[in-house]
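Case study 2.
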Amino acid sequence: MKPYLKTTPDRDGFFGEYGGAMLPPPLVPHFAEICDAYDRLSKSAEFINDLRYIRKHFQGRPTPISHLRNLSDMAGGAQIYAKREDLNHTGAHKLNHCMAEALLAKHMGKTKLIAETGAGQHGVALATAAAYFGMECEIHMGEVDIAKEAPNVVRMKLLGATVVPVGEGAKTLKEAVDSAFGSYIDQADHALFGIGSVVGPHPFPMMVRDFQKIVGIESREQFVDMTGELPDMVTACVGGGSNAMGIFSGFFDDEDVALYGVEPLGTSSKLGDHAATLTYGQDGDIHGFRSKILVDENGNPAPVNTLASGLDYPGVGPEHAYLQKTGRVTYSTADDKESLDAFYKLSRHEGIIPALESAHAVAFALREAKNHPGKSILLNLSGRGDKDIDYVTETYGYGE
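Prediction:
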């Protein structure tokens, strides 16, 4: 059988019944241009060598794997390991695809990058890429997230980006995507929309996954080097799902490695109190692609809630919906309380302050470790928590 990544998605960008590209007519030729450019450049030795140089000499890759000995002892059972994407330049996995998207834009002759952001990590990463390549940058961000993630707003502005506050609707990630798409339509001739996750119309779910798969490639090699075997379980938080697709990509063809995505349960399972799309959503269309979405009584995207701004999206990457349906990945949840507890524990007992998004994967590992004695759990620590410390301490204090 051919490797999974070589056969999925199909030429039209479908992962089974999910994915595709449902675009307003003015954007059809621009997305066709992106598809053609990616098909050509992804096979180009020059593009690949440029990207490898950037990853090594600018981003600081490869990032290490850390054995979380103290947390493993506390949890009992499985040994817990973390892929340290918090040590990637800018503090999260997002730069892996942002530098690549900017390099793609440069080859296409674009002069500007446009994006949405939730927690601000994607915005910071794309602003960093724009500065590196000498391009303009425009970042759309909901007003609620701007207030929660003030440090990242400052970083984006210092990097030269224009931050556009979005005050419509819930004023979070979904509205930021709407706003960014609207702005992009008028600027598509000279700008690239650097979509921030494995979401959006084809080719972005595939393209962002491919740029993020470096996480999985490194993780597989590093874990075998550390332990002599593959991990028994691999886990990552899932909002749109880019960090999860990145690390999962290294293990799809290893049937003995169980893969777990962790969604934000927020404060309860009631609609509007969480952002667990795969757990409670239904098939539908959002932002130009088909996937699972959370909908209200009128069939519109439902309001979502989670303390992690980077996970507050009522949709999810189409490949995740496909992987859930095929059973290759199991999707679970972690609520605000246990994720916050994991945030404090990782900080206090390992000296690592995680992003609130990543803390969901830490919470899952702590919860599951006791059920799997003698096994190993590798989690993707997708980002560091510098951006969250003001919000956490002002809202919840410093923990016990």
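DSSP finds 17 helices and 14 strands in the chain.
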